């Protein structure tokens, strides 16, 4: 039955590519690519049966024009009318065959890609071979995009191919190349939806394209664009649920995409917490209802853990520590159970490590440094073997780099200077490797610039001035490059402004330039508290106390829970001679810092500067142990 069900050249290619017997598989990615190319050019396949009939059929297809001419001459001798009728029938058949072969070609490469995508995540040591296969598949999808035609089915296949191109770029770590094919897919799907607004498949695929594009923008800190794309995806699924109320698949997608919007609203600098919380709580309630009323699916618990995680993250960001901790622990408990049932799934291990890392940060922020270190080390222990087995999977390496950084912060706060130095250096080595393997890919240069600046702060406190100056210099050079890149969104130049205003080494400060850059960004985004706070910091560094106070007060109106703002206001008011108000603002900042930001090195450093100025007891500097 299986053999009878597998017919046609594209099935031969797929079966040969997926053959369990290594000797009978394609030996290289190039061999697979060559056979698909032979199919598209009408040549005999390596995967095809070597029969005379098969090779004659291929010859006839390649030389169709010559054989058609001979047939026409013969037919014209029989009957001109019959010839005209035959040409019309054959043209129709040829068009149908062309559409069918386009669809089958895409489906075959899609099947091969899907198998490889799974292996990429689960098969150690195969990344280079699998990457080559994915890049070959990418070329085929790009070729398919050239075949649009006027037929909606062909345009739909082209849109799905463009979406898959974006997915391949993301899978192999080329985040900076994802936007173009997703935009192509969205353009094709927009027209299809306009022509057939009741076709659910078109609308669902359009929603997924918007969702994936929002994810890419979120990674690149293009926050406003990310939120816009997340809203478009949500709107599509809201309408699909209205039109298909009995379909649980659309309800699942609606809840999941609502969670995505809530997450995006609550992170990356957009402090729209009330709307974010409403979306996250609605998503979680909807998911619980789906689980109660629908047969369970394999990924349900994993998605539930994700919703608990992001709601917990928001609650912590709004100082509701106990509620936030409960949600994070709920996510961790689900992941612990899933991990116990499948310890070999690297993606699940990485998600488990991610949950531990967030709880570690929560403990560090509340001064429970021993517990924070334990959770950090457990997260790293989960990730180290994954990265060793899958060094080319960029997500695993990125997570390990972040966890090494957070461990370094915790160890620094505990006074374990040599251990902290080792953790920072490990994080640096991982991030430098990622950039070397994925040059220009977001958000890795930005992450490295931030890490270098933070490492400079650490070295400065460790009394290693030359090394700290080298780290600051490299960080600012990278920030200059990022600021020139318009795709970096609000964070591209804000990073440079922060470095130029707040760097503890005076030789790297440039208040005038920081002011000019902050004003430029505020003209485009006047409601972003970060820019007002940085403008205030730059004015403070230049000695313009009145302008600093004005900018910082505006920042505090937009974001009342950022401890940098009252800390800088305390220093500004002291310089203006308002000593009582300066001490009051310092106390406000100290309360925020003591409960939220124990691991923020720049904030700790700025707090000591303010304490020494205002003549209060400064927080202790970590001592080497």
Q: What features would you describe in this structure?
A:
The chain has 625 residues and is mainly α. It contains 28 helices and no strands. The longest helix is centred in the first third of the chain and has 43 residues. The relative contact order is 0.04.
The SSE order reads: HHHHHHHHHHHHHHHHHHHHHHHHHHHH
For the residues shown, what is the average pLDDT? 81
Counting helices, strands and paired strands, the structural category is: mainly alpha
C-alpha Rg (nearest Å): 29 Å
Amount of beta strand: under 5%
**Overall form:** globular
Q: Unreliable stretches, pLDDT < 50, 5 or more residues?
A: 1-7, 69-86
The residue fraction in helices comes out at over 70%
**Quaternary structure type:** single chain
Biggest sheet architecture: none
Distance between the termini: 71 Å
Give me the number of helical elements: 28
């Amino acid at each position: 039955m299986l053999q009878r069900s597998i017919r046609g050249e594209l099935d031969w290619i797929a079966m040969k590519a997926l053959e369990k017997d290594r000797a009978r598989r394609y030996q290289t990615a190039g061999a697979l690519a060559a056979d698909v190319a032979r199919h598209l050019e009408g040549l005999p396949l390596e995967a095809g049966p070597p029969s005379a009939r098969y090779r004659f059929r291929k010859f006839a297809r390649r030389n169709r024009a010559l054989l058609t001419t001979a047939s026409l001459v013969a037919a014209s001798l029989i009957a001109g009318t019959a010839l005209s009728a035959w040409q019309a029938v054959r043209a129709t058949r040829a068009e149908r065959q062309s559409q069918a072969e386009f669809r089958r070609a895409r489906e075959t490469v899609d099947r091969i890609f899907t198998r490889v995508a799974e292996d990429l995540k689960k098969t150690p040591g195969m990344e280079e071979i699998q990457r080559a296969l994915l890049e070959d598949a990418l070329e085929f999808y790009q070729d398919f995009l050239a075949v649009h035609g006027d037929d909606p089915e062909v345009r739909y296949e082209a849109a799905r191919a463009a979406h898959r191109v974006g997915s391949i770029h993301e899978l192999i770590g080329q985040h900076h190349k994802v936007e173009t094919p997703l935009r192509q897919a969205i353009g094709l799907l927009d027209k299809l939806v306009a022509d057939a607004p009741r076709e659910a498949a078109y609308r669902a695929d359009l929603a997924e394209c918007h969702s994936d594009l929002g994810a890419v923008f979120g990674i690149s800190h293009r926050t406003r664009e990310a939120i816009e794309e997340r809203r478009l995806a949500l709107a599509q699924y809201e309408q699909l649920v209205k039109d298909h109320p009995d379909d649980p698949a659309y309800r699942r997608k609606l809840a999941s995409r609502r969670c995505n919007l809530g997450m995006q609203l609550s992170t990356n600098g957009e402090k729209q917490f009330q709307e974010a919380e409403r979306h996250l709580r609605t998503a979680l309630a909807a998911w619980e209802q789906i689980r109660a009323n629908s047969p369970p699916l394999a990924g349900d618990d994993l998605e539930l853990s994700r919703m608990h995680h992001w709601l917990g993250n928001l609650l912590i960001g709004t100082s509701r520590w106990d509620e936030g901790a409960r949600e994070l622990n709920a996510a961790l408990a689900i992941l612990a159970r899933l991990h116990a049932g499948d310890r070999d799934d690297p993606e699940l291990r990485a998600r488990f490590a991610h949950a531990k890392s967030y709880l570690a940060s929560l403990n560090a922020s509340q001064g429970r440094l021993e517990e924070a270190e334990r959770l950090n080390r457990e997260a790293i222990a989960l990730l180290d073997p994954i990265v060793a087995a899958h060094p080319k999977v960029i997500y695993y390496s990125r997570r390990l780099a972040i966890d090494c950084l957070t461990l370094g912060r915790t160890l620094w706060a505990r006074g374990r200077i040599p251990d902290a130095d080792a953790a920072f250096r490990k994080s640096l080595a991982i991030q430098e490797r990622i950039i070397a393997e994925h040059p220009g890919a977001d958000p890795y240069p930005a992450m490295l610039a931030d890490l270098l600046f933070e490492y400079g702060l650490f070295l400065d406190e460790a009394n290693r001035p030359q090394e700290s100056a080298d780290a600051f210099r490299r960080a600012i050079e990278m920030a200059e490059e990022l600021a020139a890149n318009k795709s970096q969104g609000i964070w591209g130049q804000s990073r440079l402004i922060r470095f130029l205003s707040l760097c503890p080494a005076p030789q790297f400060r440039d208040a005038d330039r920081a002011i000019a850059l902050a004003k430029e960004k505020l003209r485009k985004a006047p409601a972003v508290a970060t820019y007002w706070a940085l403008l205030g910091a730059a004015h403070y560094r230049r000695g313009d106390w009145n302008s600093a106070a004005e900018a910082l007060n505006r920042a505090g109106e937009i974001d009342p829970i950022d401890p940098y703002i009252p800390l800088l206001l305390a220093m500004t008011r002291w310089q203006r001679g308002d000593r009582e108000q300066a001490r009051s603002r310092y106390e406000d900042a100290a309360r925020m810092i003591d409960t939220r930001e124990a691991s923020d090195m720049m904030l700790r450093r700025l707090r000591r500067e303010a304490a020494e100025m205002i003549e209060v007891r400064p927080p202790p500097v970590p001592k080497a142990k």
